[in-house]
Amino acid sequence: MYNRALSPDSLVSLEEIRAAARRVAPIARVTPLVDVTAPAGRPLWLKCESLQPAGAFKIRGAYNMVAQLTADQRRRGVITYSSGNHGQAMALAARELGAPAVVVMPKTAPQIKIDGVRSFGGEVIFEGTTSVDRRVRAEREAAARELTMVPPFDHPWIIAGQGTAGLEILEQCPDVGAVLVPIGGGGLIAGVAAAIKLTRPQVNVIGVEPDGAAKMKASVDAGHPVTLDKTETIADGLMPVCPGDLTFAHVRQFVDRIVTVTDLQIIDAVLWLFANAKIVAEPSGAATVAAALTAKPRLPGPVVAIVSGGNIGMDRLEELRKRAR
Questions:
Q1: Is 308 a catalytic site residue?
Q2: Residues 177, 72 contacting (CB under 8 angstroms)
Q3: Fold of the 8-57+155-324 domain
Q4: Rounded to 5 degrees, what angle do the CA atoms 158, 35, 167 make?
Q5: Per-residue pLDDT tens for 151-174?
Q6: At residue 304, what are phi and psi to the nearest 5 degrees?
Q7: Beta strand extents in 84-162 (DSSP E only)
Q8: C-alpha gyration radius of the chain
Q9: Domain boundaries, the chain
Q10: How far apart are CA 322 and CA 61, in angstroms?
Q11: Helices and strands, number each (H, E), in the chain
């Protein structure tokens, strides 16, 4: 974690994000922007990061970081702690770059994400249920096995990599009025907000968190990063109990506001995407769409909502359908 006394010089630059875009080009897709204005009843486009390799935006940051490690660091291997999507992305990046990978995951991780890490050659270690549990175990393993940590969000190389999605949005939708970004630890919104505000500052950047895991909103309200006693939400990728120090600094500098959505609204958005856009999104990936569909007052349009991930099994989708009923 980075020191809380961060200066503006600690924030990633536009050139660092552009360099990351060139670096990740061999593996990260330029994901499509899908127009769902008609069924949404408002100007709304979806940035489909669910179509990335490993099924989420995380490949952008993970590959950007692993690619910049030394040959010796890659030879010894990399490790991370993740609820699933970052772990899959890091395992894939490591495989492509010739590095052994270890991922510390919660005991409650969805099976589809566990299987994903293993399919890319990653070793899985289970530890606890919170991001703090995972981080402590990963740090211990890194020290004992001389592995290099690839953190899920609080690192400038990770943030710069995630910011490449923001550059794409500006190219794909030149007249965008607002961009909705989900917040877990804050790596995606930190990078996307930096890319957008440093290029086109008039565009609104709005963070979205579940009601039961609103750690970034609490931190912004307090003026410093805070740790929640617990988080509880259906969106497993948005459950960290605290934001990163560096991601918080980016949010405070670049993000216009943060809104929250309920789990029921998230479930409705998952099912809405499946029915109306033919897009498979996990709950974490559908949070922004929940915000877009329920936003009052209406957001300045056109609105782009980042669908951050699509790693959900059919059994889970059926379970959500039943809960909605």
A1: yes
A2: no
A3: Rossmann fold (3.40.50)
A4: 30
A5: 999 999 999 999 999 999 999 999
A6: -115, 125
A7: 101-105, 123-126, 148-149
A8: 18
A9: 8-57+155-324, 59-149
A10: 35
A11: 14, 10
Residue 306: CB partners within 8 Å, gap ≥ 6? 46, 47, 49, 57, 165, 169, 179, 180, 181, 182, 188, 192, 288
* Bridge partners (DSSP) listed for residue 103: 80, 124
Domains 8-57+155-324 and 59-149 share a fold: yes
pLDDT digits (tens, 9 = 90+) for 69-95: 999 999 999 999 998 899 999 999 999
Q: What is the pLDDT of residues 82-128, one digit of tens each?
A: 988 999 999 999 999 999 999 999 998 888 889 999 999 999 999 99
Which listed residue (58, 113, 215, 217) is catalytic? 58
Whole-angstrom Cα distance, residue 72 to residue 179? Answer: 39
| Average pLDDT, integer, range 210-219 | 96
Instruction: Please tell me which residue in 83, 219, 284, 308 is annotated as part of the active site.
Output: 308
* Structure tokens given for 193: 């907000």
Longest dimension (CA), the chain: 55
Band (297; pLDDT cuts 50, 70, 90)? low
Write out the E strands in 141-261: 148-149, 178-182, 204-210, 257-261
The CA distance from 163 to 195, in Å, is 6
Burial of 50 (0-12, 13-18, 19+ CB in 10 A): buried
Main-chain phi, psi angles of 321, to 5 degrees: -60, -40
HSE at residue 230, side-chain half, CA atoms within 13 A, is 3
Domain 59-149, CATH = 3.40.50.1100
Closest CA to 87 of 57, 116, 129: 116
Element (H, E) at 220: helix 215-222
Supply the pTM of this predicted model.
0.92
